[in-house]
Design the sequence.
């Protein structure tokens, strides 16, 4: 019984974790780390990709997906013939990360910056996604003033006014 309960919770944890991951992450040998932050104006996505040259990075928008791909190449030093690796932890190879863009992103204004092994991508929010404050009126002018005046004049019955 206890084993069955663990399986149920493990399955639930797996489902919850899957919602928090990017749409797809495929790689041969190398998977760059990624952070996603949100500000009032943008979503900011950053990748740690030290040792990757700017020319080896590709950023695309396809079918409402942001696709970051590239390759970190294994480069031998001039003394490669004389040295034998003793221990290696760094990963090399091609990588690709794909993220579904929220409908609130203005894809036409996406910008990218690469410096010191960190790729930063700014995904600006569309104007309608930023939200706005609604001014509370208490006087003449606007929809409610017209509505209230028409009721007083008897020109329009409140039954004709429909809510959305």
Sequence:
């Amino acid at each position: 019984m206890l084993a069955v309960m663990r399986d149920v919770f493990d399955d639930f944890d797996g489902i919850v974790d899957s919602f928090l991951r990017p749409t797809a992450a495929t790689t041969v040998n190398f998977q760059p780390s990624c952070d996603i932050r949100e500000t009032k104006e943008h979503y900011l996505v950053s990748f740690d990709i030290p040792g990757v040259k700017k020319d080896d990075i590709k950023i695309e928008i396809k079918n409402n997906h942001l696709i970051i791909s590239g390759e970190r190449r294994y480069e031998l030093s001039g003394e490669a013939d004389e040295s034998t690796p003793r221990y290696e932890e760094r990963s090399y190879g091609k990588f690709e990360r794909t993220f579904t863009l929220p409908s609130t992103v203005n894809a036409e204004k996406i910008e990218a910056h690469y410096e010191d092994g960190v790729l930063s991508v700014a995904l600006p929010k569309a104007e309608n996604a930023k939200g706005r404050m609604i001014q509370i009126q208490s006087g003449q002018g606007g929809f409610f003033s017209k509505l209230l005046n028409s009721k007083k004049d008897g020109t329009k019955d409140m039954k004709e006014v429909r809510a959305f």
About this structure: The helical segments are 2-19, 142-153. The beta strands are 24-27, 33-38, 42-48, 57-62, 65-72, 93-100, 111-115, 118-124. The first helix runs from residue 2 to 19. The longest strand covers residues 65-72.
